[in-house]
Amino acid sequence: MLDVDGLRMRYGATDVLHDVTFQARQGEVLVLLGPNGAGKTTTIEILEGFRMRSDGRVEVLGTDPAHGDERWRARVGVVLQSWRDHAKWRVRQLLEYLGSYYADYSTARVERPWDADELIAAVGLTEHADKQIKMLSGGQRRRLDVAIGVVGRPELLFLDEPTAGLDPQARREFHDLVVRLAEEGATTILLTTHDLDEAEKLADRILILNGGRIIADGTAEELAHQIVGADEVRWTRDGRRFVQSTGESTRFVFDLFRQYGETVTDLEVRRASLEDTYLALVRQAEAAASPLEGAAR
């Protein structure tokens, strides 16, 4: 679905992307993380076909996005941080109007567009189908943004900071929707976010971009074990508090209970979080870059 090899982007004398390489398969939720200025937006815009790259090979649904035609675009969905539209449009009215542009790109395998009422039900807006957009809450509005992005039944969906500004309940509902789209629709999703809890919950795989380079690629669990390493086990026995770092927490806890039985209380296993991993990776990358920057100066 996505095949990126040696992607480079240069503005004047400044390289903002260096040899970026990754792939994504059908139905996968791929989360792109990185600090501000890491190159996330530039990468996404190149993949969407909105920005020309300087070098490297990029294939999106088997096509170079720099030369994607309307038929290719009909297979790609985009959900921006905010969507500009007329506040007086009604939910069903807008989706029917936008969906009409996809009718000519329906195929035997994928019927386009998504029926407006089915789509409204899928995103949980049935009760609001005849409401004007200006009357929707933030969470409802974000559901509509997703509906707009998938009305053409895309095979690949780009989500840019999808839950920015949402309250916890709306964020949870949005997460459920993203998972359902990937599982039921076999839609590949590439998502950018600064919310590490969100990334850990949604991602099948995580890419971390820093200084224009991919510095990590794997599941949250894989990255935690590779970078941070040991889990931390805490417990109490005979009124004393113990802490032990171990790479085999399950076996350690089993042996602990086998040896001490019910005298072990207040057991807690703390696995390395994605936040631990992310911060460790960014610090490593910045430390590695510092000597090079000093030599250049």
From TrEMBL:
It comes from the Bacteria. The keyword Repeat does not apply. Residues 2-236 form the ABC transporter domain. It is a peripheral membrane protein. Gene3D superfamilies: P-loop containing nucleotide triphosphate hydrolases. It is found in: Cell membrane. Pfam families: ABC_tran. One of its GO terms (molecular function) is ATP binding. Keywords: Antibiotic resistance, ATP-binding, Nucleotide-binding, Transport. SUPFAM superfamilies: P-loop containing nucleoside triphosphate hydrolases. This is ABC transporter ATP-binding protein. It comes from Actinomadura vinacea. The lineage of its organism: Bacteria, Bacillati, Actinomycetota, Actinomycetes, Streptosporangiales.
